[in-house]
Input
Amino acid sequence: DAKTTQPTSMDCAEGRAANLPCNHSTISGNEYVYWYRQIHSQGPQYIIHGLKNNETNEMASLIITEDRKSSTLILPHATLRDTAVYYCIVRVNTNAGKSTFGDGTTLTVKP
Amino acid sequence: DAGVIQSPRHEVTEMGQEVTLRCKPISGHDYLFWYRQTMMRGLELLIYFNNNVPIDDSGMPEDRFSAKMPNASFSTLKIQPSEPRDSAVYFCASSNGRRGAGDTQYFGPGTRLTVL
Output
């Protein structure tokens, strides 16, 4: 699986959009970009994933650059409950989700 | 769906004792994963199963750790004998192994293990 680089921490004002970047310059053509988050004391939670195209669901949007070397997770209207560690993972679509979690980005949403 | 169920949620034991952690995956999921999370090492994959068969146990730290999946709805992670350095939160996750459209893992709430 390709290595990812994320900022250690970020702050965001409540109600504003939170944009979390991820670099994955060594991504292969068959590797997907997945985002999970982990709220304190809970298990990681799936957010969204994509291969080439931008994706949106009820939780977030995922923007993948055309060269696929980086992506951005967007939480459109961050709330205090979005404070969590956000993990960006790139992996092939095999082994049904076997994932290597890095250190992630600690997002703190402030009132 | 109740999601992935783990028990116990908290376990405190003394060094040298046997510890058994339990997991019930989401019904219909054919992959099951055991992870360990510590401040020092982050979230580490220990072992995963497909259709009850262990596929990759390269993350299991040593022979004191063993995992079984006797049927599609139950798995155990056993530590014998336990040591203080085994103190961590242990997560179980499951997925349904679909191909082509991506697949996601669903995590349980974790078991917080403290070995004194």
